[in-house]
Amino acid sequence: MKKHPRFLSLFLFIGVFIFVIVPFVPLIFTSLSFGWRWPDVVPQAWSLRAWEYVVNDGRTWQAVGISLSIALIVTAINIALAIPAANALMRYPVRGKWLFEAIIFSPIIIPPFISVMGIHLTFLRLGLTETVLGVVLAHIAPTLPYMFRALMISYQTLSTDWEDQARMLGAGAMPRFFHVVLPHLAPGIVAGASLSVLISLSQYLITFIIGAGQVVTLPILLFPFISGGDPGVASAYSLLYAAIAILTLIVMDAALRRYYQRNKATKEQAKGVKP
Amino acid sequence: MKIYPITAFSIVALALSACSSEGASEAPNTDSLLTDDWDLIQEAAQGQEVNLYMWGGNDNINNYLDEWVAPRMKEQHGIELTRVPMNDAQDIINQLLDEKTAGKTNGSMDIVWINGENFKAAKDNGLLWGDFTGQLPNFNDYVDAEAPEISEDFGEPVEGLEAPWGKAQFVFVHDEDRHETPPRSIAELAGWVQEHPGQFTYPAPPDFTGSAFVRHVLYETTGGHEQYAQPAAEIEDLEQRLEPMWQYLNSIEPYLWREGETYPESLAKQDQLFASGEIGMTMSYDPALAASEVLKGRFPESTRTYLLDEGTLANTHFLSIPFNASDKAGALVAINELMSPAAQTAKLSPENWGDMTALDFEKLSPEDQQAMNEVDLGEATLSIEELEQNRLPELSSDYIDIIEKGWTEHVAKE
């Protein structure tokens, strides 16, 4: 990679600082302050009340676990759905392709509230409300488009020639997918998965309506405090939420890096063995 | 290969239909609980898991239920009480309406915390179980069932469908160090805002508290609440009668926070303005809220509450059991326990919540009375006697609708 000019990286750093780091400062102050009033720029007294409540409440950690499990299951299902869909739509001459794309992308345009109201009655009859399964199914609609979009772009740059070549060398369908297609899709999958996890983690309304209070995710605990006006506890929950989201992204990114490093290592090994 | 997805789909469909039909047959006939002996009910309640659906935006209230009530419920009655946080009681009603439409009989809401418009909506749509309060020993022993604030909820007859849990009364909140003599009537307030421009505002209706402030203006500018005891539809010249209220609200508007160009969208926002010192007054439907905010360090130490000379609105909040609650026996025992003198005394302390008791003080034993008197309400809270002697009745919800819509038209848009 070409090295950026110095002023550009400085500019980027300032941009990141202002838009990403600075907004966290008042959140940290609010969650830790005891009576923070105008005109004090920095709180004069500190209190751990909000954090004690958030950390000691057993539901917080239960909610973190449930939020993450739902997000990961949703993402796994999205990958399984989006790979064949992107494959079919990008590589075969499908008639009415725009229609299929429109259907898959529609959740981005149509507010989730509208669809979830209808889904709720159906799920009630099927006994899917108040279950993690129901919430997972409901989360797929708003997250799938992002996964699909990322994979569509990955497939656009993957010529079928590569697979044809592998086939000529005698590779079956499975090895072709795992050794030719998947490595090429991996960055797209991680990009899509990051979005899918983040969007699933941030769902309030859908989780609330389908989960009906029995599936308690982090936003379900957080929202009453935002609207009820306890900025201390709301800030503490928001920080916890942000930390978990960032941590998940870092872990996913690290997994991708490891995957590439391992691949590189095995390739180099293979080279070394050959005469 | 082609058969595979079809088989998978039918297996899922079968499994799902099995789930839903199982759910339907599970619902036991529980109406006998409305007439059974209390001992039988207590026995049936053993080991039940009771879900209490309630607004979850106050850490004190949450802690009171999770740490004070729930362990005692488990110890004394073998009931697992779970608090389910909601953002708005309105959501509870919407949820129940959908469940009723879908015919769900084994609902997970066992107790719901409601009052006013939500109670009326629930009652009108048949979402509540039945006349159960007569079964509760603590209701029979300690509650004055004839008192208007118990027998009616915002003008709607309660008919035993919900049990009183606590009482609320409107108070104004100010900082003694900044404004020594706050206005004690709506008329005085008009002069006060001119002397202190930008120091007063109220949350925009339909915010619950903002709407209540407007009702105080209504009572004082149009000559008392007595005339509104009849249904709104029966007053022919209602528009004209409300006119002085709109005039008053428009006349103070230029002196409000940000010249009345905008109003705080919720009480939470207004409290934030007061907490940060941007305005000099706020209001609350919870007389002890200011005291508990002082304890949290959010409001200054010199915060005080006060009433209008003509009194302020008061109402009662209730616990009810939905039509499809799965653990009705447990719900009955839990509600009875929440109404016990011990639980009500703990609830009174601002450290726990600071909510006024729904019980009739006269009916309590001398020991219980003393325990309640000994609770330190905090300096910001008025005495229970002062609050009790200055109560104004609530309007019924048809008026509230008219006023809230009228406010947008006459005040916000002009």
Commentary on this structure:
The complex is a heterodimer of chains A (275) and B (414). Chain A has twelve helices and no strands. With 275 residues, chain A is mainly alpha-helical. The mean pLDDT of chain A is 86. Chain B is an alpha/beta fold. Classes of the chains: A mainly alpha (275), B alpha/beta (414). Chain A binds chain B through residues 33-39, 45, 47, 49-50, 53, 57, 120-121, 124-130, 208-209, 212-214, 216, 220-221, 223-233, and chain B through 16-17, 19-20, 22-23, 51, 53, 55-59, 62-63, 66, 84-88, 91, 95, 98-99, 101-104, 108-109, 266-269, 271-272, 275-278, 296-300.
User: What is Rg of chain A?
Assistant: 23 Å
What is the CATH third-level topology name of the largest domain in chain A?
MetI-like fold
Average pLDDT metric of chain A: 86
CATH architecture of the largest domain in chain B: 3-Layer(aba) Sandwich
Ends distance of chain A: 32 Å
Count of domains of chain A: 2
Strand count, sense and barrel status of the largest sheet of chain B are: 7 strands, mixed
- Number of helical elements of chain A: 12
Number of helices in the DSSP assignment of chain B: 17
Work out the number of β strands of chain B.
12
State the total count of DSSP E strands of chain A.
0
Please state roughly what percent of the residues of chain A sit in beta strands, choosing from under 5%, 5-15%, 15-25%, 25-35%, 35-45% or over 45%: under 5%
Number of domains of chain B: 2
Any idea what the radius of gyration of chain B is? 24 Å
Q: So what's the CATH class of the largest domain in chain B?
A: Alpha Beta
The ordered string of helix (H) and strand (E) elements of chain B is: HHEHEHEHHHEEEEHHHHEHEEHHEHHEH
- What's the shape of chain A? globular
The sequence of SSEs of chain A as H and E is: HHHHHHHHHHHH
3D shape of chain B: globular
Domain ABC transmembrane type-1 (chain A): 64-252
Protein name (chain A): ABC transporter permease
Subcellular location (chain A): Cell inner membrane; Cell membrane
GO cellular component, one term (chain A): plasma membrane
